[in-house]
Amino acid sequence: MKKVDIFKKLRSSGLRPTKQRVEIAKFLFEREKTFHFTVESLENQLAKKSTCKFALATIYNTIHAFKKAGHLSEVDVRGKKTYFDTNITNHHHFYDGETSELIDIDSSEVVIQKIPKAPNGKKIKNVEVFINLKN
User: Fold this and answer.
1) What is the pLDDT of residue 2?
2) 3-state SS of the chain?
3) To the nearest 10°, the Cα dihedral for 9, 31, 42, 73?
4) What share of the chain in percent tops pLDDT 90?
5) Residue 114 to residue 111: CA distance in whole angstroms
6) For helices 56-68 and 39-49, what crossing angle results, to 10°?
7) How far apart are alpha carbons 34 and 102 in whole angstroms?
8) pLDDT digit string, tens, across residues 93-128
């Protein structure tokens, strides 16, 4: 299991380390693999795994504080759902619409040969490949 300074993550996000926030942070960051989730799916998983009671507002506010501090990235699935990702590096995703699963694609697996020029007055922030899957 990955060792993370949970209290440092909470403090750098402007959050006081309450029991619930510590549990949320441990659930998100003390793991080997990248974790993708919606606020609702996280609420369900926390309810199954923890003895703490979590208000949806606490989960929502904690997640957004982590995102604002740069500990999570946000992945919008074409206006359908908003996922959060513990992998904050630039990378690509598969999305399985039938299972609602978001899966990382290693950046070395994708080769982009040409990128169009950004519109006047704009700069390209990053490039993400998003591949929809179906059975």
Assistant:
1) 56
2) CCCCCHHHHHHHCCCCCCHHHHHHHHHHHCCCCCCEECHHHHHHHHHHHCCCCCCHHHHHHHHHHHHHCCCCEEEEECCCEEEEECCCCCCEEEEECCCCEEEEECHHHCCCCCCCCCCCCCCCCCCCCEEEECC
3) 60
4) 70
5) 9
6) 120
7) 10
8) 999 988 989 999 988 899 999 999 999 999 998 888
Under CATH, what is the fold of the domain 6-133? Arc Repressor Mutant, subunit A (1.10.10)
Quote the CA–CA distance of 98 and 133 in Å, as a whole number. 8
pLDDT tens figures, 8-62: 999 999 999 999 999 999 999 999 889 999 999 999 999 998 888 999 999 999 9
Tokens of 71: 């500990």
Q: d(Cα 37, Cα 32) in Å, to the nearest integer? A: 15
Question: What is the rounded distance in angstroms from the CA atom of residue 90 to the CA atom of residue 105?
Answer: 10
Q: What's the pTM? A: 0.86
For the record, the structure tokens of 72 come out as 């999570």
CB 52 within 8 A of CB 19: yes
Residue type, 52: C
Measure the CA–CA gap between 31 and 2, rounded to whole angstroms.
Answer: 5
